[in-house]
Design goal:
The complex is a heterodimer of chains A (503) and B (107).
Chain A: H1 3-31, H2 41-53, H3 56-69, H4 74-98, H5 103-111, H6 114-147, H7 151-172, H8 178-200, H9 207-210, H10 212-222, H11 235-249, H12 253-256, H13 265-299, H14 313-320, H15 325-363, H16 369-392, H17 398-422, H18 428-442, H19 444-448, H20 453-458, H21 465-482, H22 488-499
Helix pairs in contact in A: 1-15, 2-8, 2-13, 3-6, 3-13, 3-15, 3-17, 4-11, 4-13, 4-17, 4-22, 5-6, 5-17, 6-7, 6-15, 6-16, 6-17, 6-18, 7-16, 8-13, 8-15, 10-13, 11-17, 11-21, 13-14, 14-15, 15-16, 17-18, 17-21, 18-21
Chain B: H1 19-48, H2 52-59, E1 61-62, E2 65-66, H3 67-101
Antiparallel strand pairs in B: 1-2
Helix pairs in contact in B: 1-2, 1-3
The chains are: A mainly alpha (503), B mainly alpha (107).
């Protein structure tokens, strides 16, 4: 067996083991019925948050962008960790008391309007689709890299694998063990990095802090400066990107829903802290891959980063450092798992939203349970097909595509949640106007850029929320003040239950 | 204001007294720490570029990394964790205080 076969074998084993463990857990759960609950303490809750969060963007795209852009790409690291601060202080506790965790549910309940609920559902589905495109690109790249085929075939095989995984785990009813997932994903990311650092002769016990020396060597021997600030963009673009990712984090559909499974607010808050720590472990490591990648490139005579390999920089760095094939396979498997589970989660919630928020609530309110089930199943396949069509010609790097999903979430869902929780006067008209403005802001660059070039500069497609989110909040406030106040009952609920529970 | 005219009010900038007020104070304190270190530092870095202070920020090293790279790439995520811990400790305390005042068990 050569190295490539070992990689494929290792990746296959890891994926299979999740199904086996899931099935074993399922049979145990049915014996100790009621004790196999999903809450496993604060640390377990944190690991579940982190495993929900880890995707191809974190494990592949992040290192790729740092490899290309150096300091400028640290905006992704900061944006994807700092968002949890916003989420925790502004929304976590209040949302838990409010008791609605998906955007359409919250909007439907708080603003009491089927139209607003429908728009929120469509936006959530759009966010899921954009997010999935980035994951599909990651899956396609890994498949093409491991099997030695072109990207087009890789992404098609990858899509087939994801859909069959979805169907299979749906048929078998495999529960997800998120603690195990986080453990496997983080080990598969950090272990090869330690091996790599050791092989290159740097401090390997904590490679997250050991790559500084490699960066010094890059600067001294090859005069490559990764660290210089604002070389690949201005202060505005750094801050806009960072802010967009932060508000997007606080508005992403699959992040908010985590608060549902913890028993009380206190546990929810503390598991956010653990989740943030587990996420930071990965984000401290990603720059190390990028720096080692640049260093090996430079040794091989490439002083400029190679744009084509950016999203595969973690894997290709291992290969060019002659790391054993099974380790490459483990890293590939970890990234593949992260992308798989993210896609599975997003497609299923997206399909559930099509079935409930659009089909059941609006098209056919008398639909039977089984008809709704059929719509959900068809919806999963339809969404997967749409995602595949876009992913065949990916519009950008993995992290960039993901950032567009964050921008949409930050421009629409974040203001809706923050004002909905913190201002009793926000009403349905404000919500609808706000969501429409948010969508317009997100896509202002490509839509209006031709007519009005300023739009593209103010609302860059990956980072439109720095101006977009405050603008949406202003629009919501103005429209709400011009229209009648929301019903007394909702305002009482907000004051007495959501905010006044202890007074 | 007569009792009949009572309007329910929730406003982040005009919190009621009691639990919500304590909560809003800590929220603003944490958001301040979050904004200053994230965006304030980048603005400082951009303003100092090319000057003596700027080269101090980029030339001093910590763990072999230039100071500004270390601050953004390694310290800020840690700082966010610290902020979250502080927030939780404080909220735990005020929740306990107000629960006791209201003679209710800790939820």
């Amino acid at each position: 067996m050569n190295d490539a076969t070992w990689s494929i074998f290792a990746a296959f084993c890891v994926l299979l083991s999740f199904i086996v463990v899931g099935l074993r857990q399922k049979s145990r759960d049915s014996i100790e019925y009621g004790f196999g609950g999903s809450f496993t303490g604060r640390i377990g809750g944190g690991a579940a948050i982190a495993s929900n969060w880890m995707s191809a963007a974190s494990l592949m795209g992040l290192a790729g962008l740092i490899y290309l852009q150096g300091y400028q790409a640290l905006a992704y690291v900061i944006g994807w960790t700092g968002g949890y601060v916003l989420l925790l202080v502004l929304l976590a506790g209040q949302l838990r008391r409010f008791g609605k965790f998906t955007a359409p549910d919250f909007v439907g309940e708080r603003y009491g309007s089927p139209v607003a609920r429908l728009i929120a559902a469509v936006i959530s589905i759009a966010i899921s689709v954009i997010y999935c495109v980035a994951q599909f690109k990651g899956i396609g790249l890994i498949f093409s890299f491991m099997l030695g085929i072109d990207y087009r075939h890789g992404v098609i095989y990858g899509a087939l694998a994801v859909v069959s995984y979805l169907v299979m785990s749906g048929l078998l009813g495999v529960p997800r063990n998120q603690q195990l997932q986080y453990f496997v994903i983080s080990v598969s990311f950090i272990l090869p990095l330690m091996w790599l650092a050791r092989k290159l002769g740097y401090f390997w016990i904590l490679p997250q802090f050991g790559y500084g020396e490699a960066m010094g060597e890059l600067a001294r021997r090859f005069s490559i400066d990764i660290a210089s600030p604002f070389l690949h963009g201005s202060l505005f673009s750094w801050c806009a990107l960072c802010f967009t990712l932060m508000v997007g984090t606080a508005g992403l559909p699959h992040v908010l829903s985590r608060f549902y499974t913890v028993p009380n607010i206190r546990e929810a808050r503390w598991s956010v802290v653990w989740g943030l720590f587990f996420i930071a472990l990965i984000y401290w490591s990603a720059p190390a891959y990028a720096v080692f990648g640049r260093l090996l490139d430079a040794h091989n005579g490439h002083l400029q980063p190679i744009a084509a390999m950016a999203d595969l920089v973690t894997l290709k760095t291992l290969v060019s450092a002659d790391i054993p094939g099974w380790l490459v396979g483990i890293l590939a498997a970890g990234s593949l798992c992260a992308a798989f589970f993210t896609v599975a989660g997003l497609l299923m919630t997206g399909a559930a939203s099509i079935s409930y928020d659009i089909f059941y609530s609006i098209i056919n309110p008398r639909a039977s349970e089984s008809a709704r089930m059929q719509v959900a199943k068809g919806g999963t396949l339809a969404l997967a097909a749409i995602v595949l069509l876009i992913a065949i010609n990916p519009p950008g790097l993995i992290a960039e595509i993901t950032a567009v999903a964050f921008a949409l979430a930050g421009n629409t869902i974040f203001p809706l949640f923050v004002l909905g929780i913190w201002w009793e006067r926000a009403n349905r008209y404000g919500a609808i106007a706000g969501m429409l403005t948010g969508v317009l802001c997100t896509f202002a660059g490509p839509l209006l850029g031709g007519v009005w070039p300023q739009a593209a500069a103010l609302f860059p497609i990956t980072s439109s929320a720095l101006i977009g989110a405050p603008l949406v909040i202003v629009v919501m406030i103005v429209v709400s003040l011009l229209t009648p106040a929301p019903p007394e009952e909702m305002r009482r609920f907000l004051e007495e239950e959501v905010h006044g529970h202890l007074d | 204001m007569s009792h009949r005219d009572h309007r329910y009010r929730v406003n982040l900038f005009r919190p009621k007294t009691g639990h919500m007020r304590d909560e809003v104070i800590i929220i603003f304190a944490i958001l301040f720490g979050w904004a200053v270190c994230t965006f304030g530092f980048q603005i400082l870095l951009a303003l100092c570029q090319g000057s003596g202070a700027g080269s101090l920020l980029t030339r001093l090293t910590l763990f072999g990394l230039p100071l500004h790279f270390w601050f953004t790439g390694q310290f800020l995520p840690l700082w966010f964790i610290v902020l979250c811990v502080l927030f939780n400790l404080y909220i735990d305390r005020i929740t306990e205080y107000h629960s006791r005042r209201r003679d209710r068990n800790y939820e």
